[in-house]
Design brief:
By secondary structure, the protein is mainly α. Helix content is about 85%, strand content about 0%. The protein is built from 3 helices and no strands. Helix 1 packs across helix 3 and helix 2 runs antiparallel to helix 3. The two termini are about 20 Å apart.
């Protein structure tokens, strides 16, 4: 159990390291924009045309895909750094 907690603490330190902060902020900005677009469409549903609604939904889908890609890159960088530190000893 002690080894598990040490590994978890090491991974958490890497997740919150300043060098990974830009990618995390970019991912959060993208998903925030997607959520804002979806909420705007929800409240303005009766006032916008079908074409505009489809465009917003398409942009939200692309934004969600970009978020998943950014989050995967962020996780890959963190775990590769943790493994590199672990096996370079």
């Amino acid at each position: 159990m002690k080894k598990y907690l040490e590994n978890k603490a090491e991974i958490e330190r890497e997740f919150y390291a300043p060098k990974h902060k830009q990618l995390k902020i970019a991912a959060l900005a993208v998903i925030s924009a997607v959520i804002a677009a979806e909420l705007a469409m929800l409240f303005l549903f009766d006032y916008i045309s079908l074409r505009t609604r489809l465009f917003i939904q398409g942009c939200a889908g692309v934004g969600a895909a970009v978020f998943v890609i950014l989050a995967a890159i962020w996780a890959y960088r963190v775990y590769s750094e943790v493994l590199r530190k672990r096996y370079d000893k």
